[in-house]
Amino acid sequence: MSISDVQSIEVHEQVVDAFARGWLDPTPDAWDELLDADVVLNQPFLRCGRGAQLWRDEVARLLAFLPDVRGEVLSWAGRDDVVFIHMRVSGTAGGRELTFTATDRLELDLSRGVVVRRDSYLDPTPVAATLLTRPGAWLPWWRSGVGPVLGRRKFLTPRSEGEAMTSDYSRQMTRALGVTRMVVGLTTVARPSLAATVLSSGGDRSGDGVDTAVGRMFGIRDAALAAATLSADPAVRGTGLRLGVVADVIDAGAVLLSRRGGVTGRGKVLLGGAAALFALAGFSALPRR
Question: Does a cis peptide bond (omega within 30 degrees of 0) precede residue 148?
């Protein structure tokens, strides 16, 4: 093993130690000595960009959502100027523990022992799905600005800051909403009793003519809204987004506030929560005037 290899290993150990200490008791400035002032950041749920100040701002948002968030290094490996760190992150969301794992790839300036680039890898789908089932976490999540749906920050920040973040996000979110709504609509047209089954105790209700008719109407409505949302005409696309938000708010309210009709708590969370999330996503994608 050469002297340079030994020096690299020492730097790797110092970086991992500083990284771990920061996550033991996170504060926005807990990693100041570890990060280069112009560090490049690519990170799910948090804003990507450049600069240590951006990292401080994003950690502050994370702490606003999960004040007790902590991270634990599970394993790590390093070679040359790159270190991989596998970690477990946990905190309390909606009164219950939220835990997920992530892997960070850190590029280093070995001469100074600082991170010049951070790429974080995790599957956000299970985290988003977990949050969807915890209504008590929705308002803190929304106010924090933490992802998913980062574009909602334009409603939480001054106009001058928000305008710089809206164009690409709005296009991407509009397309994602349109495609997802089309899939939901066509699936419901094909299996119109599915929604009734989820809302109720879960038994087979394929023989219920009323449920079938209502489900098919719901599917046709969503498919039509999706077609408008995916339109190449900006005016039609905007109308589709706005009508979708209205429809989702009505759907969420009808499901979440229902007291009769055999609607289960699970059904309220799954369909009512999904409609509420769709409404928030659609609202965040609306172009600002």
Answer: yes
Length of the chain in residues, anyone?
289
Secondary structure of the chain: what % helix, strand, coil (to 5)? 55, 20, 25
DSSP, res 27: -
Question: CA–CA distance from 66 to each of 63, 75, 97, 100 (Å)?
Answer: 5, 24, 10, 13
| 190-233: pLDDT as tens digits | 887 766 665 554 555 444 565 677 778 888 999 999 899 888 88
Number of CB atoms found within 10 A of residue 16's CB: 19
Residues with Cβ within 8 Å of 175's Cβ and at least 6 positions away in sequence, in order, are 230
Dist. CA 33–CA 75, nearest whole Å: 22
pLDDT digits (tens, 9 = 90+) for 100-140: 999 999 999 999 999 999 999 987 777 777 777 787 888 78
Write the CB contacts of 46 (distance below 8 Å, at least 6 apart in sequence): 58, 61, 62, 146, 147
What lies within 8 Å, CB to CB, of 192 at 6+ separation is 211, 212, 213, 214, 215, 216, 218, 219
Please tell me whether residue 33 adopts helix, strand or coil conformation: coil
CB 102 within 8 A of CB 62: no
| Chain CA centroid to CA 17, Å | 29
In Å, how far from its chain's centre is CA 181?
Answer: 18
What secondary structure does DSSP assign to 104-148, as a single string?
A: EEEEEETTTTEEEEEEEE--HHHHHHHHHT-GGGHHHHHHHT-SS
Q: Which of 143, 125, 46, 140 is nearest to 93 (CA)?
A: 140
Tokens of 60: 């502050």
Identity (one letter) of the amino acid at 146?
V
Q: Roughly what angle, to the nearest 10 degrees, separates helices 167-190 and 273-285?
A: 140
Sign of CA pseudo-dihedral 195, 200, 203, 205: negative
